[in-house]
Amino acid sequence: MRKLTVSETANELGITKEAIYNRIRRGTLKSVVEGEEKYIILDDESATSSNKQTLPSKFKRVVPDERYINLLISQITELKTANSELNKDKERLIKEKEQLLIEQRVALETIYKERDEQLKAILTLANRSLLARPVENAQNVTVDADFEEHMEKWHAEKEDGYNKESEQNKDFSDWRELKSYLKAKGFSKKRKKKIISHVKNAAETDTDIQEDDGVLYIKKERIEQFT
Question: Is residue 60 assigned to a domain?
Answer without folding.
Answer: no
